[in-house]
Amino acid sequence: MRESVMEAYLYEPFKNKTVKCNLCNHRCIIKAGKRGRCQVRENKNGVLQTMVYGRIIAGHIDPIEKKPLFHLIPGSLSYSIATVGCNFKCRFCQNADIAQMPADRNGLIMGNIATPEDIVDGAIRGNCQSIAYTYTEPTVYFEFAYDTAKIAHEKGIKNVFVTNGYMTPEALHMVAPYMDAANVDLKAYTDKFYKDYCEASLEPVKETLKLMKNLGIFVEITTLLIPGLNDDPTQLKELAAFIADSLGPEVPWHISRFHPAYRLTDQPPTPVETIINARNIGIRSGLRYVYVGNVPGENGENTFCYNCGNLLINRWGFSIRKNVIENSRCNHCGARIDGVGM
Fold first, then answer.
1. Contact 81, 133 (CB under 8 A)
2. Distance of alpha carbon 192 from its chain centroid, rounded?
């Protein structure tokens, strides 16, 4: 069994045992004995090491719809894993107990050791058709995700990243042959929001999305709407136009309702009306598939044919009540429905 500490991928050695990490767009310059922003990659005497290789903090079998990925083998199961750590510092983090563990608890790293083979075997035993690298940011455990994805790919198991989209082009090119789909958080459409609430920037995320599309990775996008912070209708129109014009109208957009969390507990939950209005903005912008999250019972959970309006997939939460798509086509008009394994 491999140790949880191993030499990292994608870094450059500099003078005086300093290194530059080229895994995410922070491109941290890390002095000897120090860690990068993610707090899980450490410079040990001039060698950058990952501290979380195979150190699994969360492992569950989930419906693929929970990622959310609505256009990757609907109704299937996904073997979902994570280590601790994240390269963002989102004040509204929904999984802060594990994502921000090293940052908030003096570098603490926890988790049970597993090999890539263990993960793939678990997926097979669980009748999972995909492995999801999720819960925290998969870029920070890239080495383990990459090694696992290669084995899964050989076994015919799909690989999906649930990500903030901040990986470098180098990292994305490296993993792309084994990545089938991704759900990318497009957290807002202003750089100010990214800087103030995530300690990051917007533009690298947009570039990652465009590169994913060019590399043939099926992309879905999620935006968590926070009242008064990223729900301005003008900005949402710009965000939806970016998806439609720069990525394509076939890219699904998931709009989720915020609930107070982590260090953003002074904001109220998102009004349902705000979510519905945002969905209407997406539809008017020409997007074929616009979904709402954390609002059970709304039509926004369902998949409709963009050509004839026929109800194709009827959902309740993460469950599918009915799916009438036939060979990736609408059973009424024959329009091709976008996705993987539809």
1. yes
2. 21
For residue 185 the two structure tokens come to: 């958080």
Angle between helical axes of 142-154 and 116-125 (0-180°, round to 10): 50
Domain that holds residue 329: 302-342
> Are the C-beta atoms of 165 and 28 separated by less than 8 Å?
no
Residues 241 and 321 in one domain: no
71 and 152 in a single domain? The answer is yes
pLDDT of residue 150: 98
Residue matched to tokens 């709009």: 255
Q: Which parts of the chain register pLDDT below 50?
A: 1
46: which DSSP letter? T
CA atoms lying within 13 Å on the CB side of residue 278:
30
Is residue 1 in a domain? no
Q: For the chain, where are the E strands, in sequence order?
A: 6-7, 11-13, 19-21, 29-30, 41-44, 47-50, 55-56, 58-63, 77-82, 112-113, 130-133, 158-163, 181-185, 218-225, 253-257, 290-293, 303-304, 311-316, 319-323
Using CA atoms, how far apart are residues 97 and 190, in angstroms rounded to an integer? 27
Tens of pLDDT along 197-216? 999 999 999 999 999 999 99
pTM score over 0.85 = yes
Question: pLDDT (tens digit, 9 = 90+) per residue, 213-243?
Answer: 999 999 999 999 999 999 999 999 999 999 9
pLDDT score of 113: 95
Q: What is the DSSP string of 261-308?
A: BTTB-SSPPPPHHHHHHHHHHHHHTT-S-EEEES-TTSGGGSEE-TTT
Query: Is 207 a member of any domain?
Result: yes
